[in-house]
Amino acid sequence: MDDTRPQPTPLQADELRNMDRFWRACNYLSAGMIYLRANPLLREPLKPEHIKRRLLGHWGSDPGQSFVLVHLNRVIKQRDLNVIFISGPGHGAPATLAHSYLEGRYSEIYPDRGETEEGMARLFKLFSFPGGIGSHCTPETPGSIHEGGELGYSLSHGYGAAFDNPDLIVTVMIGDGEAETGPLATSWHSNKFLNPARDGAVLPVLHLNGYKIANPTILARIPHEELEALFTGYGYKPWFVEGDEPEKMHQQMAATLDECIDEIRAIQQRARQEGGNVDAQRPRWPMIVLRSPKGWTGPREFGAHKIEGSWRAHQVPIADPATNGKSLKLVEEWLRSYGPETLFDESGRLVAELRALAPEGPRRISANLHANGGALCKALDLPDFAGYAVDVSQPATSYVSPTDVLGQFLRDVMRRNMTSFRVFGPDETASNKLTAIYEASGKTWLAQIVESDRDGGELSADGRVMEMLSEHTLEGWLEGYTLTGRHGLFATYEAFVHVIDSMFNQHAKWLEKAKRELRWRQPVPSLNLLITSLVWRQDHNGFTHQDPGFLDVVTNKSPDVVRIYLPPDANCLLSVADHCLRSRDYVNVIVADKQPHLQYLDMKSAITHCTKGIGIWDWASTDLDHEPDVVMASAGDIPTMEALAAVEILKGLFPDLKIRFVNVVDLFRLMPDSDHPHGLSGRDFDSLFTTDKPVIFNFHSYPSLVHKLTYRRTNHANIHVHGYAEKGNINTPLELAIINGIDRFSLAIDVIDRVHRLRGVGDHAKERLRDQKIRHLDYAHSEGIDSEEIRDWKWAG
Amino acid sequence: MDDTRPQPTPLQADELRNMDRFWRACNYLSAGMIYLRANPLLREPLKPEHIKRRLLGHWGSDPGQSFVLVHLNRVIKQRDLNVIFISGPGHGAPATLAHSYLEGRYSEIYPDRGETEEGMARLFKLFSFPGGIGSHCTPETPGSIHEGGELGYSLSHGYGAAFDNPDLIVTVMIGDGEAETGPLATSWHSNKFLNPARDGAVLPVLHLNGYKIANPTILARIPHEELEALFTGYGYKPWFVEGDEPEKMHQQMAATLDECIDEIRAIQQRARQEGGNVDAQRPRWPMIVLRSPKGWTGPREFGAHKIEGSWRAHQVPIADPATNGKSLKLVEEWLRSYGPETLFDESGRLVAELRALAPEGPRRISANLHANGGALCKALDLPDFAGYAVDVSQPATSYVSPTDVLGQFLRDVMRRNMTSFRVFGPDETASNKLTAIYEASGKTWLAQIVESDRDGGELSADGRVMEMLSEHTLEGWLEGYTLTGRHGLFATYEAFVHVIDSMFNQHAKWLEKAKRELRWRQPVPSLNLLITSLVWRQDHNGFTHQDPGFLDVVTNKSPDVVRIYLPPDANCLLSVADHCLRSRDYVNVIVADKQPHLQYLDMKSAITHCTKGIGIWDWASTDLDHEPDVVMASAGDIPTMEALAAVEILKGLFPDLKIRFVNVVDLFRLMPDSDHPHGLSGRDFDSLFTTDKPVIFNFHSYPSLVHKLTYRRTNHANIHVHGYAEKGNINTPLELAIINGIDRFSLAIDVIDRVHRLRGVGDHAKERLRDQKIRHLDYAHSEGIDSEEIRDWKWAG
C-alpha cells in the first residue's frame, strides 16, 4: 500500500457500516451457495444434512468482487450513473449472483428463487447443481455479458461494450490469473481505441487476489514499482487499494472510486466540450489495482494450512463439513460471522436499510439493459444491396474483387449507422480490399498521429474502422459490441482466424444458451466473420498462410447458432452480407476472397441462388431435360472457377456427356434437414445430386468436411471431394490448385475415371490433360506466374 | 532517443566502415531478392527484363534485422559467444537469408545457390518463386527455429530455446506489429521463469519499425516514458537505440550490445557463483528497443509519397519498375547506392575483408546447431514404464486416476533427465493430478516467493515444472524447447487446448516441411500434448468447459506428423506415453482423463493393445467363434465404460446376442492405410468391424469425426456413432452422458433398434431401459450426484 498517500475517509460511520453489512450479505450468500442445501438462514444449528452432497463452486475471488459491486452501487446512486460490471475471474459467479439477488433482480427473472427463506434455499441448492445455476457468469446471470468460463476476454468485452455508449461506464474486474493470458495482456492497449467524446468509459479493476488454482500469480509477485510501471506503460493511471482490514479498505475504495469517476467525467467533459477533437491528447484513464486476500473474510486457516490469502481458498475452502465435525463447526462459525440474522428479516428478505443501498430499476447493475443488449438493439438502416451489383451480362466472363464490392456496400452501411456499426480487422482492412469503407470513416486511433498518416485510410479519434494487430482483441471488442446490441463485421485472413477458434467456441455456446433457454434475453445482432485472403490465393505467402480448417471448428457447434456461406462471386457476397447483417443470434461465417475473381450471376440470379443456398446452374450444365452422367459441384470462388473450366474441357472432349453443375453457397444445405434447420430433405438432396451418379465436388476447404456433412446421403458413396490436401509452398495459384487436385485438369480426369461410359474411350484425353498440367506447371516454374490462358480464363459458353 | 546518455563510440573507423559495408551487402541482397531475376551484381544497366515478373517479398523490416545480425556477429567473434537469432517480424526472411548467404552457410546447404554471381542470381530468382524460397524464416532457412508466418510466438520460442542451455544467448527480434498480439504481449513475462544459473539468456530486441501493413504500430506511437515504463513493468532493463543515421546508429548499437552482453554475463556469473540460489533476487535482464525507419536505406520517396519510414515500405516499395522507366531508374539508384561492386568480388563472392567479419563454423548464427536441434538431441533416459503398472487382475473392476499414474512415470522421467525434460501446464498440473512430478522437481518461479508457498508443489528458480496461466506461452516454450532438441509434455484442459489451435497448425506445418523435404534438419523430439480434464467429467464446470473438438483440427494436418491416442486406462496411458516420449517429429495428442476411471487391461495386454492400436476385447465380447450380431466399439475412457455397461445390460436381456467389443486407442487406425501410415487395410478393418453388421461406436469427441475417418469403409453405412452432441450445462457425469446419448441405456437401446432379430422382441426391454434413464436422472436431480450404482459400476463378467 502506498502509505505516503493521505487516507481520506469519505464514508460516514453509518454509511460505512451498512455498506459493510451489504457486503457481508453478499459473502454470506456466496458461501451459502457453495455449502447449503437447507437451513439457508442458519435458523438452526448447522447439521451435516444441511450440507450439499457435492461441494462445488469457487470462493476465492467472490468477496473481492462483491466488495467492488457494493462500492459501485454507492456511486451509481450518488451520481445516477449508468454502469455495467464484467466479472473476469474464473468461476466468480457466486459474487454476481449474490449481488443480483440482493438487488431483487434475480428474483424478478427467476420467481422460484424469490426473496424469501424458501427462495434463498432454492438459490443455494440450484447453484452448481445438475441442471441448475452455473459457476461462471453464464447467460442465465442477470447483468452479465461475459461468462468467463475461458479466461482472457473480460477487458476486450468491456471495451466493446463501451464503444458508442457515451453514457456508460463499464467496470471490468480482471483476475490476476486471467491477466497472465495473452489476450488479456494485450487488451490493455484498447485504451488507444477509445474516444472519450463519443464512447463510454472502461474502468478496469485488476484484482490482485494473489493466487490462481494452485500457484501465485505473476502480477501479485512483482514489486510495486514494476506493477505501477506496467500500467503506466499501458497508458493508464493506476490507483492502488490494498489491504485486508474491511473498515480501512471501505474508506480507501470509496475514496478511490470517487477519484476515478471524477477523472472519467473530467476526461469526458474535456473531450466533449472540445467538440470531439481529442486527437491531440490521449487521456490517461484511471484503473484500480485491488489487492485483497484470496477468500477474504473466509476461514483463516484449517489445521496446519493457511486458507484466507492462499490458493487453498480458491475453490471450496473446507472440503468435508458433512463428514467431519470439526469442519462443520468451522463452516458454521464462518457463516455465522456474517450475522445473517442481522442482514435478513423474518421472511428471509434483505433488511430495508440495506435494500436501500441498491440503485433502482434499470440502474441496478443486474438490470442494466446494456447487459441484455437485444433490448436496446435497433435494426441497421441498410441501403439496398442490389444497388452495388456488379454487371454480369454473361456468366464467367468478367473479373472483379468481391471484397472490393462488399467494401462499397459496407461504406454506406456505415454512413447510415454511424453510432451502431463498426468494422474490425487486424491491420488488414486495406489488404483485404475493403478500402471503400474509409470513405465513410477512418481508422480509430488515439495514439500519436503524424502528418504522413493522412496518406492512406485516415487515422483519427473519430474513426470507426478498428484495426489492431490482435485477432483476440478485435473478436473480443466485436463480441462486447454485439452483446450490447450493436452491429459489426470482423474481416480476417483465413489462416489466422484459427487464432480465435476458442473465442468463437465460447461465443457460440453463449448464443445457444441465450437463444434456446432464456426468453428474457432479447436476440442480439449476429457476429459476422468475413474470412478472406483465402487459401487458394495465398500461394505467394506460403504454407503458413494456407489453412481453411476453421469451418471444421464451426460445424461442431450447435446448428441453432452457426451459419457458413461461400458466395461464389460479388453479387452473391452482397446478398449474403445483407442477410447476415439483418440476422440475430448467429455466428455467420462468410468465406470470400479479395482477389479479382470471375463473376457468375447477375443480381437477380444471385438473390435467387443465395436464397435457395444451393442450386443447379443451368447455363453451365449440359444435362438439360436429361438424367446427368455426372454431377459437378462446387463451393467457394476458385473451386467454382476450376470446376467450370473442367466442364468446358469436358464439353470439348465429350460433347454428349451430360453434366449437371451444382453450386453451394449455404454449406449447411448439405446436411440432412433433421440435423440442421438449413439442411435439405433427402428428396431435395437426391434430386440435385442424384441417387447413383458420380458427384465430383470441388470444395474450398478440407475435403473431409463435405463427407462429414453428407455421409448419410443416399448417394454418398459416389461423392468424390477435391479440396485442400494440406499441400503448399510458395506457389502460383494454378500450381497450388494442381498439387491439391482442385484444378480443372484433375477434375476432368476424375470425371473420366468415374463415368462408366468414358472408361477406356477417355484414356487418350486423360493423357492430354496430364500433359497440359505439366505444360502449365512448367510455364509457372520458369516465369514465376501462371500463363495468361489460366489467369484470364473465361467461360466460352 | 535519450539524449542525456553520453554517446560512446566503441567502433574504430575501419571496423565501423566494414560493418556498415557488411550491412549494406545484406540490404543489397534483400532488395535483390525482391526485384532481380538476372543481372544480380548490376554489372550492366538495369533493364526491365532483369526485373521479376511477379514482385513479392517484404522490404520493410529487413534493414533493421540485418543491422542487428551484423552487430551480433561482432560480439560473437569478439567474445566467442553462442548465439541464435529468432526473427519475429512477418515476412522478414530476406534479411536472414542474406545474412546466412554472406556467412557462407546458405551455399553449404544449397550448393546450387553458391557464392558466385550465378548462385546469387539463383538465390534472387528462387526467392518467393513457385516451388522456391519462402518469404518467412521457413524450415528451409539455415539458423531458423521460428518461421514467423503467424505472428506472436517469437519471444516464447526464444525462451523455450534458452531453457537448459546455459551457454546460449537467444536474440529475439520482435516486430512492433507482432508485439500487439496477445501471445507476444504476455510472453514478456517469461523472464519470471528463466533461471540465470541454469538457463541461457534471452535478449529481446523490440524493433520499433513504426508501421504494420497499413497502419502505425501502437508501441511506436506512445510516448517514450510509457514505453520505458512498460518494459520496466515487464521486469526488463530497456536500452534504446534510436535514429536513422547509420554511423551514429552503428556506434550506438555496438555500445548498447556491449552493455547488454556485459549485463547478461554479470547476471549469470552472480547466479552461478552463488550455486544456483537465485530465489532471492530476480535479475532485470536487458532488452533493446531499436527504433529505425521502416525500409531504412531504401528509397525515401516516390512521387508524392513518402516511402522510407512509412507503411509504404512494408512490402515492395516501388511496384512497377518493369513497366515504368522512372520506377526502374529509382530501383537501380537504390540498389547501386549499396555499391555492390565494392562488396562482391569478380566471382560474385563477398570480399575477403567482409567475409572476415562473420564468425566461423557453428558459431555462425546460420550454422548454430541449436537451430537444428535434432543434431544436438539425445534420447531420453526412460525408466521401464511397465514398472508403474496398475494391477488389473480382473478387467473393469477397479478405479484409478490415469493421470495420477502417469505422473509417477513422468516424475522418474524427469529425475533421469534433469536438463532435457520439462513438463508444462497452465496452472493445472496439480488439478490434472500430475502432482507426483513435484517429487522430482518443483515449479519454476523467479518472482517473489513467500513462506506459505512451500505448502503445495514447491516454487523455486530450480523448478522444472512450468506453470503460467497462458497456453500460448507454454506451447511456445515447448515448441522452442523441442526444436532445440529437448523433450517435454504439455498437459492442458481439453476445452482450452483450442486456445492454441493455430499454434498447433503452424508447428505441424513446420514439422512436415522439415521432415519431408529437408534432409539436413535432424529429427527433433515430438511435441507431446496431454489433453485431460475431459468433456465427460466437466459436467460440474459446465458448457464452456466442454469441447472435445481439437481432434478435428488435428486430423486436418498431414498424416506424416500427427498422431492421436485415446488410451482407455492407466496402463494403456503408460504405454502410449512411453511411445510418444521416444518418438520424433510428431505432434502426439494423448487424450486421457484425470478422474478415477475403471481399469481394463493388465500391463501385458495394454502393451499388446496399444501396439496394435485397435483390437477386440475378447473378455467383453460374446461372439467368440461366431459371426457377431453387432459390434460395440469405443474410443476414450468414459465412452468405453458406458459401452461395456451397455454390453452387460444386453447380455442380461438377450443371452444369445453375439456382441463383439472393439476398442480404439490409435485413432488413425480408422483411416484407410492409403491415407495414413497408421491406417488399417480394408481387409483388417472389415475383419474387425464386419462388412454388414451394425456397429455402435461410442466416441469421446464429436461423432462426425469417426465418419470423417471411416466414410470410405465397406461397412460405413452401418456405423452409428454416439459422441458429444454439444449439449451440456451443470450436470452429473451420467446426466451429461445421457443428454448426449453416450450412456449405457442409450447404447443398449440403439443396439436393440439396429439388430434385426431384436426388433419387436426388444420393445419391452427398450421401455425398461428408458425408465432406468429417468430413474437415474431423477436421483441425480434430487441429490446432485449420480447414484452409487452408476458411479461405482463394475463389470460383472
TrEMBL record, chains A, B:
GO terms for molecular function: aldehyde-lyase activity. Residues 594-795 form the Xylulose 5-phosphate/Fructose 6-phosphate phosphoketolase C-terminal domain. The keyword Lyase applies. GO terms for biological process: carbohydrate metabolic process. Pfam families: XFP, XFP_C, XFP_N. Keywords: Lyase, Thiamine pyrophosphate. InterPro entries: Phosphoketolase (IPR023962), THDP-binding (IPR029061), Transketo_C/PFOR_II (IPR009014), Xul5P/Fru6P_PKetolase (IPR005593), Xul5P/Fru6P_PKetolase_C (IPR018969), Xul5P/Fru6P_PKetolase_CS (IPR019790), Xul5P/Fru6P_PKetolase_N (IPR018970), Xul5P/Fru6P_PKetolase_ThDP_BS (IPR019789). It comes from the Bacteria. The keyword Lipoprotein does not apply. Residues 13-375 form the Xylulose 5-phosphate/Fructose 6-phosphate phosphoketolase N-terminal domain. Its EC number is 4.1.2.-. Its cofactor is thiamine diphosphate. Belongs to the XFP family. This is Probable phosphoketolase. It comes from Paraburkholderia caribensis.
